[in-house]
Amino acid sequence: MDTTTIVSLVKASLGFTSSVRDTYLTTIAEGVVRELQEEKGLALDGTNPYHLQFVVDYAAWRYKSRDEPGGMPRHLQYRLHNLMVHSGGAAT
């Protein structure tokens, strides 16, 4: 997946217009993509808007919740579960 696009969309979601946080957001985006591919076994498709929007929302949540206790919000858990079920649970 193209992290430049992900970072641009995360910035839009968070209302950021400057590039001050780009390095941090890029690291979060790369981490989210790697986690979904390597730990969750998803074969992400950068041209699939559903996949892209999930990665953007997940990365934005990671940024916003960096200092907060607790787990992933229910709506993200639900969408992750659906992605995993739809893809058969693992990438080959």
Overview of this structure, please?
- The chain has 92 residues and is mostly helical.
- The chain has one domain.
- It is 64% helix and 0% strand.
- The chain is built from 4 helices and no strands.
- α3 (49-64) runs antiparallel to α4 (74-86).
- The chain is globular.
SSE diagram, text form:
Blueprint: H1 3-14, H2 22-39, H3 49-64, H4 74-86
Helix pairs in contact: 1-2, 1-3, 2-3, 3-4
Give the overall form. Answer: globular
**What integer value in Å does the Rg equal?**
13 Å
- The total domain count is 1
SSE order: HHHH
What is the beta-strand fraction? under 5%
Percent helix, as a range, is 55-70%
Number of helices: 4
Biggest pleated-sheet summary: none
The number of E-state strands comes to 0
Q: How much is the average pLDDT?
A: 92
Low-confidence runs: none
Query: Which structural class do you get from the secondary structure elements?
Result: mainly alpha
Distance between the termini: 17 Å
Protein name: Phage gp6-like head-tail connector protein
Organism: Cohnella lubricantis
